[in-house]
């Protein structure tokens, strides 16, 4: 499956637009607080464990986006956007969402 932030794919004409595909992941913010409480790998102002947790959430959102697009019969997703939001009472959770247009090439 081709996933792209661009609205089209050079050399791959879009035959059909199938709709919006999405993938969302919500992670409890306490995970990030726990990471910061015990962080030992801060080097050069970067928190490796925190970055790893964000990377994992982002990758999971992309996987869900791809699964949603496959259910629609797509072979690509174009115009992909990635968003991070703090949600829940008192900002207790972090939501990572990916969305784009599922297409048939």
UniProtKB/TrEMBL annotation:
InterPro entries in UniProt: UPF0145_dom_sf, UPF0145_YbjQ-like
Pfam families per UniProt: YbjQ_1 (PF01906)
Highest rank taxon of the organism: Bacteria
Family recorded in the similarity comment: Belongs to the UPF0145 family.
The protein's name: UPF0145 protein IC608_01735
Protein source organism: Devosia oryzisoli
């Amino acid at each position: 499956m081709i996933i792209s932030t661009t609205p089209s794919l050079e050399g791959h004409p879009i035959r059909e637009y199938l709709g919006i595909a999405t993938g969302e992941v919500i992670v409890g913010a306490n995970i990030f607080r726990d990471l910061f409480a015990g962080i030992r790998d801060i080097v050069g102002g970067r928190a490796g464990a925190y970055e790893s947790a964000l990377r994992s959430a982002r990758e999971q959102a992309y996987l869900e986006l791809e699964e949603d697009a496959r259910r629609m019969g797509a072979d690509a997703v174009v115009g992909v956007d990635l968003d991070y939001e703090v949600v829940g009472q008192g900002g207790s959770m972090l939501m990572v969402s990916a969305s784009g247009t599922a297409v048939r090439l």
